[in-house]
Amino acid sequence: MTHPSGTQPAPRRTPLDAEERVRSEVNFSQLVAEHLVAKGRFRITADSPEMVDLWQTVARRVGEMLQRPVVSYANGRDIVITFAQRTPNLTTQS
Description:
This protein is an alpha+beta fold. 43% of the residues lie in helices and 17% in strands.
């Protein structure tokens, strides 16, 4: 198949199987947790729905590991994982 001059065919991605997904979540969670503690923010390319879902799962696991609120922001190309901003308690309980 020929492609117009200067263009490349879109890469084909093989979806992760169940075992690869579990290994990725575990290994990436440790990496992201270490990075968040050191830098406060982790950014990576996540340009497919599968990768966004994987990294959002990793963000949830990291929040549980660190026992701190963690959020993730995706824009269709990248995902940023960071600690959630703490908001002051607006109501006072007596």
